[in-house]
Amino acid sequence: MKGRDLLSISDLHAADIRRLITGAIALKNGGWTSQLGEKTLALLFEKPSLRTRVSFEVAMRQLGGQCIYLSPAEVGLGQREAVADVARVLSSYVDIITIRTFSHRTLEEFARHSRVPVINALSDAEHPCQALSDLMTVYEKKGKLEGLVITFVGDGNNVSTSLMLAAALSGMHFRIASPPGYAVKNEFKDLATSYARANGGSVIFTEDPHEAVRGADIVYTDVWTSMGQEAEAAKRRRDFAAYQVNGRLFSLARADAIFMHNLPAHRGEEVTDEVIDGPRSVVFEQSENKMHLLKALLLEMLGGEKTP
Ligand code: NVA
């Protein structure tokens, strides 16, 4: 990972995912060491964030580095100043940049002009850091990834796309049930299918949540309306009504299945209190693990100069 960007799960190989997970678990169990003194992380966020922002900042500080948070009002990415110019300027001051943008294209343009590695902290297309810490949580809970059935119920969005790609690369059996019109994009379906084939896993796309959840080891969901889609919220609530993860749907999964959600959750919409607060929910371990995984990621990515 030295000097590379992490914009998409497709920037990773299966071995990178395995190494990041085992590294993160070792960091979690062994405390932290100050290894990133003198290094500075800039966080450039166009949308709100609790988990990703705080876990990045704490991870960097516990490793001995510094952080600078820049809110949308301060930077005006692409409005007050051209994306390429912000990238050139910011990357001349800091060692690594993490960005949360509306458009994945902004992120790609930024990375092209940055002299230092760039990490996607959520775009409209992907949320790779989330998927990595989620698979760390699965690995901790189940002792393996290969061969497990992981089902996502809901929107073919940034979270499910990254989860699908990471699961397929890890030899898992990924299923996603989405309402008509909300499936993951075809280019990502094709990529995931090829990853699954190469790594002994599989991917299934369906509109039937019952078929998708039956026999699953992991059931995962996310909000129906992502940041930036607020105007569609009422329509989405109608379109997704049959895709709520409630006790009845979750009971179709294996008896030892775990429930996952990247948070924030809209309780009573995509998930009921009964499930998210239930004994098999691991949602708060997921959020804690983000910090451990990001430490492993920062250590790897700051280990060298950016390669052209
Ligand atoms: N899909 C959600 C994830 C939030 C962390 C969104 O993009 O708003």
Q: Major sheet, described briefly?
A: 5 strands, parallel
What is the number of helices? 13
What integer is the average pLDDT? 95
Helix/strand structural class: alpha/beta
- Total domain modules: 2
Q: Can you tell me the residue ranges where pLDDT is under 50 for at least 5 consecutive residues?
A: none
Distance between the termini: 13 Å
Number of strands: 9
Task: Please state how the strands of the largest beta sheet are arranged side by side.
Answer: 7-6-5-8-9
Q: Which value, in Å, is the CA radius of gyration? A: 19 Å
Series of H and E elements: HEHEHHEHEHEHEHEHEHHEHH
General shape: globular
Indicate the proportion of strand residues: 5-15%
Bound molecules: norvaline
* Helical content (DSSP H or I, runs of 4+): 40-55%
- Looking at CATH, which topology of the largest domain would you report? Rossmann fold
CATH architecture descriptor text of the largest domain: 3-Layer(aba) Sandwich
Could you state the CATH homologous superfamily of the largest domain?
Aspartate/ornithine carbamoyltransferase
CATH class wording of the largest domain: Alpha Beta
